[in-house]
Amino acid sequence: MTLAKRQTPISVQLPDYGVYVLESYHAPGFQMRAESHAFLELFFVLGGRGHFEIDAAVHPCRKNDLMSVPPGRLHTIHDHAAEPLALYAVCVSPDVAGHDFDLFDRLPVGTVRLGSVLAGQTRSIFRQLLFEQTRERPFGVTAIVGLTLQLLATLARRIGVKTQSAAEDDARSASPRRAEVERYVGDLAHRFFEHATIDSAAQELGMSRRRFTTLFAELTGQTWSDYVTALRIQYACKLLRETSRSVVAIAFECGFEEISSFYRAFKRQTGDSPGHWREFKRGG
């Protein structure tokens, strides 16, 4: 199927629920006047390259980048002459995140370099959004708003307010790879329960397993497996102490796929079984 190529941007009118998703495949010679909107725009770069100009600052982009344009920012999109951009985009009213008033302020401005794993997850969310918007299934609006909030929360938690333009990339520490691993280590406090391996972690950051392992050990003094396990057991202890959830439920919530693995890890970390540890901490 031949995709329609655009010479100008798509005009957007948000629906009542405040989210609109689109695809835009640029033709050679794509032209855009500077404009601003009352809503947030997030663009996922499917292909091509170019740059976004946001409030006179230049933000280069390439395949698998995410571009963030907050409400009220004057911006234009410029394609590379030989490689026009192909984009997914979601437009989001501030009212969608009205329950979390500073969420938009925590999002980056400009280019967000995504590792391959996060890029795949982000692309998948955009595809689900387009599917729900196109099919108009029962409860589709709820699905669209939920997926959009998931995307926003992921960005706010993992990226923070850093803008990763090309100029900032050049100005980063003498060891960009080390900085990436340092960010990843900080994120683990909110991700330790995810199903992951050391190989998927290295792939997410776009580096070899050996390089990732070396940098991770330098920053934490531990192996990846030991560090993640320690975070999981620390959280398990909190749940055992503060809730009445079963040991099995806690094990799976903390990221263990097998209850036997949880028991072994808990014993190594605390010297006790989960049940006995809970009784002791509760004074019973």
Per-chain topology:
Layout lengths: L18 E7 L14 E8 L2 E5 L2 E5 L3 E5 L5 E5 L6 E7 L17 E4 L2 H20 L4 H19 L7 H6 L4 H12 L10 H7 L4 H12 L3 H19 L4 H7 L5 H12 L3 H8 L3
Antiparallel strand pairs: 1-7, 2-5, 2-7, 3-4, 3-6, 5-8
Helix pairs in contact: 1-2, 4-6, 5-6
Write a concise synopsis of the structure shown:
Helix content is 43%, strand content 16%.
How would you describe this protein?
This protein has ten helices and eight strands. With 284 residues, the chain is an alpha+beta fold. It folds into two domains: 19-167, Jelly Rolls (Sandwich), CATH 2.60.120.280; 172-284, Arc Repressor Mutant, subunit A, CATH 1.10.10. The strands form two sheets. A five-stranded antiparallel beta sheet has the order 1-7-2-5-8, with helices on one face. A three-stranded antiparallel beta sheet has the order 4-3-6, with no helix packed on it. Strand 3 (50-54) and strand 4 (57-61) form a beta hairpin. Helix 4 crosses helix 6. The longest helix has 20 residues, at 116-135. The termini are far apart.
